[in-house]
């Protein structure tokens, strides 16, 4: 898509500007909130979904007129693992489209100066060359189990690019790899692979189980980024990056699922056997993002995987009685 120039100037955001973090109670949003607060932002705005349902277009426009945010990070979305995505595809398509169209349209009406839209690495073709470069978007077929969610996110990227082209506003998009950390969804139905492993191995450790069996061979490789690194990357991009193409956010390194399971088992103190049911499917052999755009803009992650998993396990244990389901 052709791009026009925007009015972006690299540099610190105004710490007193009204800054709306949509989805501020979620995994990403709560980390963004903590990070922005620690970076001195004094005028953060957040609403829970029961206070403001972002599917309600009139309410979203009214909220933007009342609060007049100057910066928006869109971290509100209907998010889930493979089971939820493949069982409820129309919910993932429709709710995400509604949320993003409402928020981005309302932000446009207010001419919000800086918007960051968050998508996901599942927007890329199933058989994209690894590591996955940003320009592989729309070059092949999607993974069918989450294509509805991915199409909604691709529409969001296009909306950001279209606003840039039509109005010259410096809005941007970021596509994180698999995230994990405090505040994650650990529910059996809704969770992603890492929180699911933490829950499974913690329960096995508590029960003194002799073995835990995981699906597949354990050989697929996956990349994981701690959510606090994600939050710092978001602020970094808002302050240093401008461009129409979505930016990959990850570590640039991957591990096998077997390695991840072993790190999780160590972190929870599980001493039984780790077994693999090789009759079950493995999924894509590798999913690693090319993060050279982000690295080239001067950002790098700081949380190591072992440390990140250890502190996430601590958080899980402290919160196990009141986790979201
Ligand atoms: N988790 C990952 O591994 C991962 C990986 C790549 C990309 N991402 C992206 O990061 C973004 C945030 O994901 P997350 O993992 O932080 O998800 P999450 O923990 O499920 O949080 C999503 C938040 O969105 C809010 N929300 C959902 N529907 C809403 C509605 N109708 N109105 C208002 N708020 C609504 C929820 O608010 P309430 O709590 O108030 O209900 C929730 O706090 C998403 O765009 C996702 O695609 C996540």
UniProtKB/TrEMBL annotation:
InterPro entries: Epimerase_deHydtase, GDP_fucose/colitose_synth, NAD(P)-bd_dom_sf. The record marks 120, 122 as: Important for catalytic activity. GO terms for molecular function: GDP-L-fucose synthase activity. It catalyses: GDP-beta-L-fucose + NADP(+) = GDP-4-dehydro-alpha-D-rhamnose + NADPH + H(+). It is an enzyme of class 1 (oxidoreductase). It comes from the Bacteria. NADP(+) binds at residues 23-29, 118-121, 153, 176-179, 192. SUPFAM superfamilies: NAD(P)-binding Rossmann-fold domains. The keyword DNA-binding does not apply. The active site is at 149 (proton donor/acceptor). Keywords: Isomerase, Multifunctional enzyme, NADP, Oxidoreductase. Pathway: Nucleotide-sugar biosynthesis; GDP-L-fucose biosynthesis via de novo pathway; GDP-L-fucose from GDP-alpha-D-mannose: step 2/2. Substrate binds at residues 200, 215, 222, 282. Belongs to the NAD(P)-dependent epimerase/dehydratase family. Fucose synthase subfamily. PANTHER family: GDP-L-FUCOSE SYNTHASE. This is GDP-L-fucose synthase. The lineage of its organism: Bacteria, Bacillati, Actinomycetota, Actinomycetes, Mycobacteriales. The gene is fcl.
């Amino acid at each position: 898509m052709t791009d026009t120039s925007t009015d972006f100037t690299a540099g610190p955001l105004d710490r007193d500007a009204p800054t709306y973090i949509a989805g501020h109670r979620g995994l990403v949003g709560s980390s963004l909130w903590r990070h922005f607060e620690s970076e001195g932002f004094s005028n953060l705005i957040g609403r829970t979904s029961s206070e403001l349902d972002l599917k309600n277009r009139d309410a979203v426009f009214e909220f933007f007129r009342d609060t007049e945010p100057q910066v928006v990070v869109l971290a509100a979305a209907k998010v889930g693992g493979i089971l939820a995505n493949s069982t409820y595809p129309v919910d993932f398509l429709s709710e995400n489209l509604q949320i993003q169209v409402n928020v981005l349209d309302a932000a446009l009406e207010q001419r919000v100066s800086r918007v960051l839209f968050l998508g996901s690495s599942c927007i890329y073709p199933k058989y994209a060359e690894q590591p996955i470069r940003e320009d592989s978007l729309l070059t092949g077929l999607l993974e069918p189990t989450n294509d509805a969610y991915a199409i909604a996110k691709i529409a969001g990227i296009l909306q950001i690019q279209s606003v840039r082209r039509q109005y010259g506003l410096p809005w941007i998009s970021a596509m994180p790899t698999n995230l994990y950390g405090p505040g994650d969804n650990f529910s059996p139905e809704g969770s992603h692979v890492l929180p699911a492993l933490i829950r499974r191995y913690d329960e096995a450790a508590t029960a003194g189980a002799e073995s835990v069996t995981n699906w597949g061979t354990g050989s697929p490789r996956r990349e994981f980024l701690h959510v606090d690194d994600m939050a710092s990357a978001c602020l970094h991009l808002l302050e240093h990056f401008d461009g129409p193409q979505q930016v990959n956010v990850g570590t640039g390194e991957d591990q096998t699922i077997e390695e991840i399971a072993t790190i999780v088992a160590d972190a929870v103190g599980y001493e039984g056997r780790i077994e693999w049911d090789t009759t079950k499917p493995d999924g894509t052999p590798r999913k690693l993002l090319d993060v050279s755009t982000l690295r080239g803009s001067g950002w790098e992650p700081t949380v190591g995987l072992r440390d990140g998993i250890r502190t996430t396990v601590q958080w899980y244990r402290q919160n196990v009685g009141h986790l979201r389901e």
